[in-house]
Amino acid sequence: MYPRPALRHASAPGLPVALTPPVALALVLVLGGCVPGGGVHGKPGAASLRDPYFPRIGNGGYDVQHYGLTLDYAPDSGRLKGTAEITARATQDLSAFNLDLDGLAVDSVTVDGEKAAFHHAGTELTLRPGDDLRRGATFRTVVRYSGVPRRITDPDTSEEGWLRTGERAVGLGEPTGSMAWFPGNHHPSDKASYDIRITVPEGLKAVSNGELREERTAKGRTSFDWHSAEPMASYVAMVAIGPYKTRAIGGTKGTVPIYTAVDPTAGSSGARLLKELPGIVKWQEKTFGPYPFSSTGVVIGRPGDSGYALETQNRPFLPGPTSVATLVHEMAHQWFGNSVTPKSWRDMWLSEGFAEYTEWLWTEHTEHVPVRQSFADAYDADANWTFPPARPPSAVNISDAPVYGRGAMVLQRVRETVGDATFFRIVRGWARTHRHGNADTHDFTTYVERESGRDLGELWDAWLYGEERPWLD
Hints:
By secondary structure, the protein is α+β, with helices and mostly antiparallel strands. The protein has helices at about 265-290, 325-330, 350-365, 370-380, 400-420, 420-435, 440-450, 455-465; strands at about 25, 60-75, 80-90, 95-100, 105-110, 115, 115-120, 125-130, 140-145, 150-155, 160-165, 170, 190-200, 205-210, 210-220, 220-230, 240, 245-250, 260, 295-300, 315-320, 340, 435-440. The strands form five sheets. Strands 1, 2, 3, 5, 6, 9, 13, 15 and 16 form a nine-stranded mixed β-sheet that branches. Helix 1 (about 265-290) packs parallel to helix 2, helix 5 packs antiparallel against helix 8 (about 455-465) and helix 6 (about 420-435) crosses helix 7 (about 440-450). Mean pLDDT is about 90; it is low at about 5-40.
């Protein structure tokens, strides 16, 4: 995400909301395999995963494998309707389980084709299948829902969820906004593959994550089918709808396919970013290792489409006009944040610290400003010392300056301690070892010490967890 200290992002999920009346939206949740005859005596899955900053998001008792979302959007009314299929595996014997869904009305629910009881209160959709689910079973759920998706305003005044401006709309999810447009297990620790089909009026484009498999028009409406094979956390799932100018560049030997979407108002700023993108990807691959996904790109909107850039998987969303540095930052997240995803929101510095440090590396690469100078500037900035990057005081602070600037300083101190060759070997190894997985701060510090052969306890105490600004050597 970029920029951060001034903006970002503390939702308060779980508060009661007024539900819109059911309209015919079919969201099909696929979770497959009830055990017939009541042979399993399960218990309800947990209604949250007890994230330290967003304790009401996420759900226990199952692991989502795949989301299949079919969405139909009417820009004139702002109404969304569709079908979503979610395939999941039960991690315990289940009598009931929850999904996160905020502000949309639910019409009906089935599990493995059989009607299921449900209750929707606030952001919790509780489902009770006719028969309990056996631990290890793959099971399916179909949920019908509809309404006008919510624009969620966070305590720091930033906005997420479904951001509608006239005929344009963008669905953004960090940290909890994806629940505004589809139900699911909306915690970063539960990643899944996705198929997203979006139907909009002819003349508009609908862009999402992954690869565009098909675009077809009938009776004045166009459907776009997007496929994301690699695991993705729901907070980096994205839908962008508008009169975009799109371009697809097929991958050649040694490169990944690129799909870009640019608002017609972006002008020369958008053109410059598109020109820089292939070089940025090539440089980042040299620095961090192979690009972790099967395609890349960028979506460039208008300044008012969102108040921040976001590292949505495969193609970041940038409200233009914006800078090359912003694109570098969000592309770095494809390795650090999207492929290697934080286990909880407490570990956000592992995403933002790496992305900020990548900006320092890029500035050195293109403008010959030493990383050490960027470190010194960050060290002198009082805003970076209001709390330790690994211990934000509350959800309001997870995108504040220390998570970015001081997080990057931690990496530079590691580099200075272990040497350049070892440091970049560690960075590439970290991205490779946890590719498409989740990791936390303890995983990182343990990995660095093991790979470097150094006890770095004093470094972590001072720079990662310390309350005071450390003295420089």
